[in-house]
Amino acid sequence: MLRWLMDNEITLSPRLTTLGIALRPVLARLEQGIDAPATPACPVLCMRETISAHFDSIQRTIQRLEHRIDMLMVDVVANEAATDTEIYRAASLLEGVIDELLDACRETREMNTHGNDNIARNLLADMYRHTLNEIRSWLADLVATLVDPRSALEKRGFSLTGQVELTFALKLTPAPQLPQIVEWARKQSMSTSSKLHMGAHALMPGPRVNKPPEPDYRVSAYDLLIWFLAIVAAIIIFTTPGILILLIFLLFVFGFISALASLLGAIFSCRR
What is the pTM of this model? Predict the structure, then answer.
């Protein structure tokens, strides 16, 4: 709050005059930075994540800005003992926070985006400009009043007699681009979810088809033994006379029938 006792002349305390001088370059830097040219050259991997990061960053920066303004009013405006060093230090700290917003705005305008991401980039840059323009208006009003209080009071329509109090409070309003950015992010999220659903559906296994079992051509050890005995019996038939020949012949027949049954079983299993 600035307070004057109006008389024939309006006189500011030296510290307030010094504050106006210290804030002039801060205002000039802000005015140049808002409209500074930017060339899109920085690729963006995920625009939604970038927007989320900028939202978190701007909220923290605004909180620090409000803190610096409060300290400016306490340490300088309301402190009659403030030195020039303290005044310039307070102005420099305020400038540092404003520079963070200017850097973020320039970073946004330098994003190299395509398609729908261009819409989000432009909305985000305009949101920064909205906030920076409100800061510029507040700072320009403060500097103009400190540099030429009579003209500032006349412009505001104040009477130039008696006591006058002026309050310089920075009031930041929500950017009109904010709902559009939120809606853009919502649509992008729905689009991504739809693509993920389609991709998951494509990766799902198809219906199972029951295939006939493969034929088993394996021969057991028992079958091999029978075939071996049959071959041995065939040899003995031609070399051994009498009853032994008959027994061996019967064994051969049994072995032959058993082997034939196994072979036929394998054939029919293959056909099924």
Answer: 0.67
